[in-house]
Request: fold
Amino acid sequence: MMTTEISTPIIGHEQAQRLLTAAVRTQRLAHAYLFTGPDGIGKRLVATRWAMAINCEMPPQKDFGGCGRCRACAMALAGSHPDLIIIEPDGLFIKIEQIRAVQVSLGFASWSGARKIILIDRADRLNQEAANCLLKTLEEPPPASLLILLSASPNDLLPTLRSRCHLVRFFPLDEDQLTPWLIAEQSWSKEEAALVGAVAGGCIGKALAVDPSALREERDLIDQWVSDSCLARTGPDQALFRLTEGAEAAAQTPEQFERTLRWLLLWLQDVVRLIVSTNPAGALPRFPSAQRAARQLPISACSQLAVQLHWTWRASFRNINRHLLLEQWLIALREACLGAPRRSQLQEPTAPL
Ligand SMILES: [Zn+2]
Reply:
């Protein structure tokens, strides 16, 4: 565990912090917890700080986390507390040997006389053998032990494992929480922070992994492409050529396709925000072309386009031609923007195109 990880301030997750603080203060801890929420949202940070609070030598603190000053907290902050064991995938999976080592360790008394805490990060990566082995520990948990499983895909865990854990859900941060923090801590501009926060889906870990200037360049390319393909009234042949060319490039790989759909969804959100804003001049769009689209698109078309974008995403899982799916959506957007009679009505695809 990196020292910086545990000492990083926790942003958001107030509900989880309240629940976990109350469990420490009232000494009503379950034997096993399952923290769920998207990757990069802060589950591991909250778990390590909670572990620090549980084994803190001072009386339970009012705020989340330990006192930060006692011997146990100092070791936790240094990432060397002997009663906190962190397990994560070794390669692709968490293997049975790792869980057996945990079981051996749980057989020994804790260093401090407090709890032995086992944190299993990406618990959905337990392979079958390891999961069955861990199940035995959960069925008969050793006294003074605590297991914290973290997972972004809890449905991939054995149901019998899931049902033995107390569930704590983590939700993406609101834009109002994340954007000011990114501006203050990363010295990013409001525009960069808003863009990064939106692309990171409210997950602080994902936001910190983003290079804002590279993201801005990608945003500019998408913005120019949508503007040339769907908003330009002149040169329809050229616009359709740009539309097809861009859709083809975006459909090259499933990852690129999904990323493009996410960008288009953000673009559409911008348009809707501008349309419904009581102060459009004060609303800061993440895409310059959204201003123009907001003047052209009726709000009813926006909701229909949002639904169609979702269908496009879902249909892509069924081996339907991604290029054609995206092209269809963009043509629908172009027609809605230019107010032309609808030549094609998108339906939820039911068969390969
Ligand atoms: Zn302490």
Summary: The radius of gyration is 25 Å. The domain at 3-169 is CATH 3.40.50.300 (Rossmann fold). The chain has a mean pLDDT of 88. The longest strand covers residues 145-151.
